[in-house]
Amino acid sequence: MSIASPTTPESAVSKSASGSWKLRQKLHKTTVYLTLIALSIIFMAPLMWMFSTSLKQSWEVVQRPPIWIPSELMWNNYWEGWTALPFNTFFRNSLMIALHNVFANLITCSLAAFAFARLRAPGRNVFFIAILATMMMPFEVTIIPHFLLWMHIGNFTREHFGFVAGIN
To answer: Which tens digit of pLDDT belongs to each residue from 4-49?
Structure first.
Protein backbone atom coordinates (compact mmCIF):
# COMPACT_ATOMS: atom_id res chain seq x y z
CA MET A 1 0.00 0.00 0.00
CA SER A 2 1.41 3.35 -0.93
CA ILE A 3 0.70 6.85 0.28
CA ALA A 4 -0.65 9.22 -2.32
CA SER A 5 1.61 12.17 -2.88
CA PRO A 6 0.20 15.63 -3.51
CA THR A 7 0.09 16.69 -7.13
CA THR A 8 1.46 20.15 -6.45
CA PRO A 9 4.43 20.90 -4.27
CA GLU A 10 3.71 22.53 -0.91
CA SER A 11 5.75 25.60 -1.78
CA ALA A 12 3.49 26.38 -4.74
CA VAL A 13 0.37 26.13 -2.60
CA SER A 14 1.74 28.40 0.09
CA LYS A 15 2.92 30.98 -2.46
CA SER A 16 -0.49 31.22 -4.12
CA ALA A 17 -2.26 31.37 -0.75
CA SER A 18 0.06 34.08 0.53
CA GLY A 19 -0.35 36.02 -2.72
CA SER A 20 -4.12 35.86 -2.36
CA TRP A 21 -3.84 36.91 1.28
CA LYS A 22 -1.63 39.88 0.38
CA LEU A 23 -4.05 40.92 -2.35
CA ARG A 24 -7.00 40.78 0.07
CA GLN A 25 -5.00 42.72 2.65
CA LYS A 26 -4.10 45.44 0.12
CA LEU A 27 -7.72 45.62 -1.05
CA HIS A 28 -8.90 45.93 2.56
CA LYS A 29 -6.36 48.69 3.32
CA THR A 30 -7.30 50.55 0.15
CA THR A 31 -11.00 50.34 1.02
CA VAL A 32 -10.36 51.55 4.57
CA TYR A 33 -8.22 54.47 3.39
CA LEU A 34 -10.71 55.51 0.71
CA THR A 35 -13.52 55.38 3.26
CA LEU A 36 -11.50 57.47 5.72
CA ILE A 37 -10.66 60.02 3.03
CA ALA A 38 -14.33 60.28 2.00
CA LEU A 39 -15.45 60.70 5.62
CA SER A 40 -12.78 63.31 6.32
CA ILE A 41 -13.92 65.32 3.29
CA ILE A 42 -17.54 65.06 4.47
CA PHE A 43 -16.62 66.15 8.00
CA MET A 44 -14.29 68.93 6.84
CA ALA A 45 -16.74 70.41 4.32
CA PRO A 46 -18.70 72.48 6.89
CA LEU A 47 -15.46 73.88 8.33
CA MET A 48 -14.16 74.77 4.88
CA TRP A 49 -17.54 76.34 4.05
CA MET A 50 -17.45 78.38 7.27
CA PHE A 51 -13.93 79.64 6.54
CA SER A 52 -14.86 80.45 2.94
CA THR A 53 -18.00 82.29 4.06
CA SER A 54 -16.04 84.32 6.61
CA LEU A 55 -13.94 85.77 3.79
CA LYS A 56 -16.86 86.65 1.49
CA GLN A 57 -18.63 89.91 0.96
CA SER A 58 -22.19 90.04 2.28
CA TRP A 59 -23.80 89.67 -1.16
CA GLU A 60 -21.72 86.55 -1.89
CA VAL A 61 -22.92 84.82 1.27
CA VAL A 62 -26.55 84.67 0.13
CA GLN A 63 -25.86 84.08 -3.56
CA ARG A 64 -27.51 81.06 -5.20
CA PRO A 65 -25.95 78.80 -6.35
CA PRO A 66 -23.38 79.14 -3.59
CA ILE A 67 -19.77 79.80 -4.49
CA TRP A 68 -16.93 78.19 -2.55
CA ILE A 69 -14.13 80.61 -3.41
CA PRO A 70 -14.91 84.31 -2.87
CA SER A 71 -14.16 86.77 -5.66
CA GLU A 72 -12.24 88.99 -3.24
CA LEU A 73 -10.83 87.91 0.12
CA MET A 74 -12.29 90.16 2.82
CA TRP A 75 -9.83 89.69 5.69
CA ASN A 76 -11.23 92.79 7.43
CA ASN A 77 -14.41 90.77 8.18
CA TYR A 78 -12.53 89.30 11.14
CA TRP A 79 -11.65 92.74 12.49
CA GLU A 80 -15.21 93.99 12.02
CA GLY A 81 -16.58 90.92 13.78
CA TRP A 82 -14.15 91.33 16.67
CA THR A 83 -14.91 95.04 17.15
CA ALA A 84 -18.71 94.88 16.64
CA LEU A 85 -19.16 93.79 20.27
CA PRO A 86 -16.75 93.94 23.21
CA PHE A 87 -15.16 90.59 22.33
CA ASN A 88 -11.98 91.55 24.19
CA THR A 89 -13.98 91.49 27.42
CA PHE A 90 -15.79 88.29 26.43
CA PHE A 91 -12.52 86.58 25.55
CA ARG A 92 -10.82 87.72 28.75
CA ASN A 93 -13.74 86.55 30.90
CA SER A 94 -13.87 83.17 29.15
CA LEU A 95 -10.13 82.73 29.56
CA MET A 96 -10.26 83.64 33.25
CA ILE A 97 -13.15 81.24 33.91
CA ALA A 98 -11.44 78.42 32.02
CA LEU A 99 -8.11 78.90 33.81
CA HIS A 100 -9.81 79.21 37.19
CA ASN A 101 -11.84 76.04 36.61
CA VAL A 102 -8.83 74.06 35.42
CA PHE A 103 -6.67 74.99 38.41
CA ALA A 104 -9.51 74.57 40.92
CA ASN A 105 -10.32 71.13 39.48
CA LEU A 106 -6.66 70.12 39.49
CA ILE A 107 -6.29 70.97 43.16
CA THR A 108 -9.56 69.50 44.41
CA CYS A 109 -9.44 66.37 42.24
CA SER A 110 -5.83 65.66 43.19
CA LEU A 111 -6.64 65.92 46.88
CA ALA A 112 -9.76 63.76 46.51
CA ALA A 113 -7.87 61.15 44.49
CA PHE A 114 -5.16 60.97 47.13
CA ALA A 115 -7.74 60.60 49.88
CA PHE A 116 -9.59 57.81 48.06
CA ALA A 117 -6.40 56.00 47.10
CA ARG A 118 -4.51 56.14 50.39
CA LEU A 119 -6.95 56.65 53.24
CA ARG A 120 -9.21 53.90 54.54
CA ALA A 121 -12.23 55.42 56.25
CA PRO A 122 -15.67 54.05 57.08
CA GLY A 123 -18.22 55.01 54.41
CA ARG A 124 -15.49 55.68 51.86
CA ASN A 125 -17.21 53.64 49.14
CA VAL A 126 -20.57 55.34 49.68
CA PHE A 127 -18.93 58.75 49.47
CA PHE A 128 -17.03 57.70 46.33
CA ILE A 129 -20.26 56.53 44.65
CA ALA A 130 -21.94 59.82 45.59
CA ILE A 131 -19.11 61.80 44.01
CA LEU A 132 -19.24 59.67 40.86
CA ALA A 133 -23.02 60.10 40.64
CA THR A 134 -22.75 63.88 40.83
CA MET A 135 -19.97 63.89 38.23
CA MET A 136 -22.11 61.85 35.83
CA MET A 137 -25.03 64.25 36.11
CA PRO A 138 -25.28 66.41 32.96
CA PHE A 139 -25.08 70.18 33.29
CA GLU A 140 -28.57 70.54 31.79
CA VAL A 141 -29.99 68.90 34.92
CA THR A 142 -28.22 71.30 37.27
CA ILE A 143 -28.54 74.58 35.36
CA ILE A 144 -31.86 75.63 36.95
CA PRO A 145 -30.72 74.91 40.52
CA HIS A 146 -27.50 76.85 39.78
CA PHE A 147 -29.53 79.78 38.47
CA LEU A 148 -31.88 79.78 41.48
CA LEU A 149 -28.92 79.56 43.87
CA TRP A 150 -27.18 82.56 42.33
CA MET A 151 -30.43 84.56 42.15
CA HIS A 152 -30.97 84.07 45.90
CA ILE A 153 -27.36 84.92 46.68
CA GLY A 154 -27.66 88.13 44.68
CA ASN A 155 -25.05 89.99 42.66
CA PHE A 156 -26.33 88.22 39.56
CA THR A 157 -25.82 91.24 37.31
CA ARG A 158 -22.31 92.17 38.36
CA GLU A 159 -19.62 92.10 35.70
CA HIS A 160 -17.49 89.50 37.50
CA PHE A 161 -20.38 87.17 38.27
CA GLY A 162 -19.13 84.73 35.65
CA PHE A 163 -15.88 84.18 37.51
CA VAL A 164 -17.71 82.68 40.46
CA ALA A 165 -20.71 81.19 38.64
CA GLY A 166 -18.47 79.42 36.15
CA ILE A 167 -17.44 76.98 38.86
CA ASN A 168 -19.50 73.81 38.64
So the answer is: 665 655 555 555 667 788 899 999 999 999 999 999 999 999 999 9
CA distances from 111 to 13, 73, 115, 130 (A): 64, 52, 6, 17
Give me the long-range contacts of 165-168 (CB less than 8 A, separation at least 24).
166/97, 166/100, 166/101, 167/100, 167/101, 167/104, 168/101, 168/139, 168/142
Domain range list for the chain: 10-76, 86-165
Angle at 157 between CA 148 and CA 98, to 5 degrees: 80
Q: Which pLDDT score is estimated for 93?
A: 80
HSE-CB at 106 with a 13 A cutoff on CA atoms is: 6
Q: What is the DSSP string of 85-150?
A: TTHHHHHHHHHHHHHHHHHHHHHHHHHHHHHHHH---TTHHHHHHHHHHHHHS-HHHHHHHHHHHH
pLDDT along the chain (168 residues), means of 10: 60 63 93 98 95 91 88 91 87 85 89 89 89 88 82 64 55
Query: What does the DSSP 8-state code read for residue 64?
Result: S
